[in-house]
Amino acid sequence: MISVSNITKRFGAVTVLDNVSFAVGDCGSCVISGASGSGKTTLLRLIAGLDLPDEGEISLGGLPVSTPGGAVAPHLRHIGFVFQSPALWPHMTVAEHVSFGLTGLNKRETGRRVRRVLADADLTHLAGRYPSRLSGGEKRRVALARAVAARPRHLLMDEPLANLDPELKERLLRFILKTHRQTGACLVYVTHDEAEAQAVAQQHLVLRAGRVVHAVPPVEPNHES
Amino acid sequence: MPLHSQADARFSSGRLLAFIGLVSFFLFVFGPLIFLIPPVVREIAGSGPDTLLLMLPTGRRLSLLLSSLLYAAGVSVCGTVIGVLCASFFFSRDRRWTRILPILILAVLPIPPTIHALAWMAAWADVSGWLTSHGFFFPPLRGWFGAVWVQTMSLLPFSFGICLIALRNLDPALIEAARMMGDDLKTLLKVALPLIFPALISAAVFLFVMTLSDYAVPSLFSVSVYPLEVFSDFSAENSPARAFLLSVPLLVITAAVVLSAQSTMRDVAAETPKGALGRSLRLELGPCTNGLTVLCLVLAVLCFVVPTFALWLDVGSVSDLAAAVGSAKSAIYTTLFCALFSTLIALVPSFWWADGMRGIGRRGRILWVMALVVPAIPGSLFGIGLVYMGNMPVFAPLNDTLVFPILVSVARFSPWAAILLFCFGQRIDPILFDAAAVHETGPVVGFLKVRLPLMLPGILAAGILVGVLAAGELSGTLLVLPPGVDTMIPRIFTYLHYGATPQTAALSLVMSWGFLVLFSVVLWLLSKNKA
Questions:
Q1: Does A83 contact B7 at a Cβ distance shorter than 8 Å?
Q2: What ipTM, to 2 d.p.?
């Protein structure tokens, strides 16, 4: 469960998020939309622990992880994050990206998990490739695979399908929904795309100038669309 | 995952390392200057407030300060104008050789001014002799003209590099939009050059402070400048307090200049070069501008050719070169030893300082300004601080070792490494570090697997930079070298006062080529970063 309570974030004199609150239940999903500069990415970064809130509290699984006074390190939050750009490390192969966040597994289990994730993301044949030799769509798949490989309890996705052609977008969206169902992770998904939002959302928040201006309560997602 | 135990857990182990790194950097760099504070306080307390008058230059010292300011301003204006015109030449042409030649010009960047001076003296004498024998007049290279010429040539790669990177980083759309509405000369003068104005300011400020804090070149041309006065006063009086107080006017001027331009310089340093040195456009600048840019190109090529090839004329033969190197073996080993250890000591603290400089907000700016101010401090002041330190009984045993020459280089050149690492780090998309912070299994793993490999070319480049600068250090090293021990540049500097000989030419040539090869590696490493 992700719980965001009365979060405010300022950068200098600019208030980027102003008293934002919402909660996403276990296995639930929440789509966040809004115009550019409305604070969507900042909200995800606060949940991930990459930035700290000025006011309010963020809890994951019922435990507070971010307050103005302290924060749990990002890697201890059991989060998978798909950034706006693929953010792939140029010196690592696809397989190394997928295995990067795996912990507590022996070598054989790690190998098995990596192969499984690569197969799910249709990346097996690219396992040894470096990012410079991947297409845009392949890079997105690697970023998704990296985010889900460690079976995180929370998945944060910041416009993961932006600027992709419709066919690839549909394939990757199916992959995301399947992964979400399989892992049972709590998903927070930022998008501008109405169709994506409808396919993913159990609940929907609209941000404007750092405030929640519209909130649709949790409903069952339309996985068929 | 309770919060109380995790308060500030984010990068907690990293924070400790960063704190140690920042403190070490501060102590290494500012330590020699801090050692000057007690004698200054004692001097003021003992001799009364009259001592403070040393900070106010009057009479001869005032005229020296004004001459130094004019000299620095002259070098700054000449160097920046030639640099930007030469950069315009490369910006307006896109051929294979215009991609290679800038790298050669930049490769002479770490060759010390002392070697430039020797090379230019030798080349000028040869050309002058030949022309005079054929009845032509050729002005002699001496006095202020000689000092300005040599200092400009030795610093030209800096201004050229800054301007070229800025020009080649311009958004092509802006240039193309201008070309739709005016000729190429207008595009260059009205759009491209105004857009790179911050880079021009940075280059000018950089040349100004580097010149104002240096005395090596003026002293070789027998002209007096203020930093030489500080050095001479310390040699005569052996009073660190007097030397520090005499330096205050210089420190105030350079600090004011650097502080007024620090924000602009930070933006320029944070620019992302596209490719090795960006890309050029084909522009038709017209015959007059073309002529000017070609003339400046010739000067820039000379600043590469003279210190790397012209010295050969004075060396004579390969056997003479080998003999000169053989006779200076111990100086070469000592130089390499000092350069190596300076690099090893400087690198880790510089890494963390650069990391701190990248931080947003006031802290990042303060660290940036502190790193930027150090190159503007006269090198002899670091040496004087260490001499005072060596006079303390507890540090006295270090006087017979190479610790102080190494510490002088660490103090002077760690900020260079930090600035280079800052620039390099700015070229890496921060989201790569964010992705590591979220997905890593621990901060150490994240550091070793992501941060270190991404920064490795920058770290190696910074290491080599510190090494070559340390090998060329003069003003501080002269004061703290143990008796009977020599490094290359002080030896060359001392020889030069008795006139250029084949032996000094040979040693300088070896140094030049060593610097050239090593700095080419730096440029290659920096161009490797595609993150």
A1: no
A2: 0.72
CATH number for the domain whose boundaries are B8-47+320-531:
1.10.3720.10
Under CATH, domain B68-315 is a member of which superfamily? Answer: MetI-like (1.10.3720.10)
Contact assignment for B454 to A74 by CB distance below 8 Å:
no
Tens digits of residue pLDDT in B450-508: 888 888 888 887 888 888 888 888 888 888 888 888 888 887 777 776 665 677 777 77
Q: Cβ of A70 under 8 Å from any chain B Cβ?
A: yes
Residue B333 CA from chain centroid, whole number = 23
pTM (2 d.p.): 0.75
Tokens of B104: 């050669």
Domain ranges of chain B: 8-47+320-531, 68-315
Q: Which residues of chain B have pLDDT under 50?
A: 1-11, 274-277, 530-531
A73, A83, A85 member nearest B11 (Cβ): A73
Q: Does the beta carbon of A74 lie under 8 angstroms from any beta carbon of chain B?
A: yes
Handedness of CA A163, A166, A171, A176 (dihedral sign): positive
Q: Is B9 close to A76, i.e. CB distance below 8 A?
A: yes
Which helix or strand (DSSP H or E) is residue A207 part of? strand A203-208
Residue B480 parent element (H or E): helix B477-480
pLDDT-flagged residues of chain A (< 70): 217-225
Q: Phi and psi for A190 in degrees, rounded to 5?
A: -95, 130
| Environment class of A8 (CB within 10 Å of its CB; exposed 0-12, middle 13-18, buried 19+) | middle
What are the φ and ψ backbone dihedral angles of B527, each rounded to 5 degrees?
-75, -10
Tell me which residue in B3, B436, B442 faces A65 most closely, judged by beta carbons: B3
Contact check, Cβ <8 Å, A75/B443: yes
